[in-house]
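Session log. Operator J.P. requested a structure for one protein chain; no other inputs attached. Running the standard single-chain path with token output.
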Amino acid sequence: MLELRPNCEMCDKDLPPQAMDARICSYECTFCAACVDEVLQNVCPNCAGGFVPRPIRPLQDRRAGVSLLHQPASAKRRSLKYSLEDIARQTDATKDIAPQDR
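Structure written below.
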């Protein structure tokens, strides 16, 4: 099951489960759309993969036991472990390679 992380790992913006601007990579690293588009240029600073919109988990059961009520979002906030300079180097070196070719 996808871990719904509560914040952007770069700017710490709150990203509740229903946030339409949450973006994830294949490792579930989570960032806001503004950081992905304006700073990271679609390069995950942790894995160098690309991003997609994070799916929205249903608020109520439309199937028994399957909803945010039964599989709640994570409360553990995360932050980057890399410096802005390191992120900029990786982004510059990777941004022109399509995510599927990285």
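Operator note: The chain has a mean pLDDT of 97.
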